From TrEMBL:
Protein name, entry field: AB hydrolase-1 domain-containing protein
Domain AB hydrolase-1: 87-187
Entry keyword annotation includes Kinase: no
UniProt organism field: Lepraria finkii
Family according to the record: Belongs to the AB hydrolase superfamily. Epoxide hydrolase family.
Amino acid sequence: MARSVYFAITCLLSAVLSFFELGGHLVAANPGRPSILLGRNCTINEHPDVSDLAGASYVPHVRAARLPSGRTYRYVHYPPHGPEKLTVLFLHGFPSSAYDWRRQFAYFAALGYGVLAPDLLGYGGTDKPADVGAYTLKNQAREIVELLDCAGVGMVLSVGHDLGSPLLSRIATYYPTLSTKYVFLDIGYDAPPLVDLTAAGIAALNAQTLATEGYEPLGYWSFFNETGAGRVLDTHQDSFWSISYTDNDPVYWKTVFGPTGLLEAFVKANKRAPVGGFVSIEDEAVHNHIFAPERGGYEPALNHYRALYRDLNLQDENAIPKSATNLTKPVLLLTAAKDPIGTPARAERSTRPYAPALRVQEIDSGHFMMLEKADEVNKAINEFFENE
């Protein structure tokens, strides 16, 4: 009981603070498209630096917002065509940015939806704080809501992939009225308290999967947790690109990416995996610009892993009552048949107990299904939005 009261009070205080910070405008209180009412601490730059996105078709839709928190987020924004259409919020994972949603932007915009896809904290044109504590899920959820408010967006249809899925999970927890539907790609919902992605949780999953399936799926987390791991990836960017976007996830992700120590050894030896046909040389060039060492490289983005692995969310997670664990809106889970790290079974097992209105669809794809099978993924998401 005390835990529920504490959680309710903290959520209320957060809402009140946001109300005054944003000039009296609350996202949750605006079910459609609210008028843009920017507080004095929220400003939008319509012409941010996009030099790392050369050739990207969506560049005219890139903006940057300085939030009440003081952070600056770069994001892609297509307004909806009419008041009957909501905006789709896309949350990317690692090693990505808003660029990994490039095959969704035009599709959903052409159907009349709005689109908003941020470079998450530590990525692309968004701020890259060195403090790992800035990357807690509660903090990031609050900043995403601030960004939506700055952009004049009310209720949304929310989509998360990879590490964007834990973030979407906590946006659902802390802001349950913000989204009308949820879509999780490859990685399922993470119910509170989030323990599976801490050092202890990762070790337990690796040991269990090694014993039952013969391989470790998340051994690379201990490498990513090391300070300076990003500089190793910076030095061997071509190698890391090849194994991240390989066309053979079942082999390379099971035998190299997942097992403890092997990804680090692979990139340090500058080895190459066969790159998938779903990405181009031009895509690699943009990716390399986004993660160029002079722009911060991979090190800031790895802070997402470190905050989870080091259990920096512990206090926030323990304050969440059991009554807030379920997803109260319709959920679509798209699983990746060829991903040995985010397996369909694990994704569904983490989601089904907490999503009464759950639809599951398996995509014959590796991890980056929104790129590899864009047409199928787009169709599945749109049908869910329109028909469920």
